[in-house]
Amino acid sequence: MTSNIAESLKTLLNQLYEERDKTKAQLDSLEKAISDMEGTYSELLSLTVSPVVEKVDKPKKITLRVKGKVRINPSKEKVAKIVRQMLEDSDKPLSRSEIYKSLDRQGIKIWGKDPEMVLSTMLWRAGPELGIENKKGVGYILKGKDYGILS
Description:
Elements: H1 2-49, E1 63-66, E2 69-72, H2 76-89, H3 96-105, H4 115-126, E3 132-135, E4 139-142
Antiparallel strand pairs: 1-2, 3-4
Helix pairs in contact: 2-4
């Protein structure tokens, strides 16, 4: 009779351990969700509460969330300077895809729904100051550089 009671207590104890482990896992999941939400909330407050006091020449960085992680693209000015150097070193026009792949190989990541389009927009906005042009059907070129194929 004592062994039956001991077995029953052992079974109940094991069930309680299992229930405790499940509850711990749920609590961990809730803690992570709370932490993520607090981070998003803080980000939102910093974007909406911070008034613009004066115009700053510092390039604007756009923050993106990709698979729950914060990703920041390099400034369009930095990308345009690197692309200008690529075009100076190249003996032919470069396609957007070639430029994107070269930047990626150099460890320069561009994030967004369509990263190559983001690159194109960066070059469209910052490129003209550095003499970067996108010639339809040809690719990106440096203004005034002779590639031997343009008229």
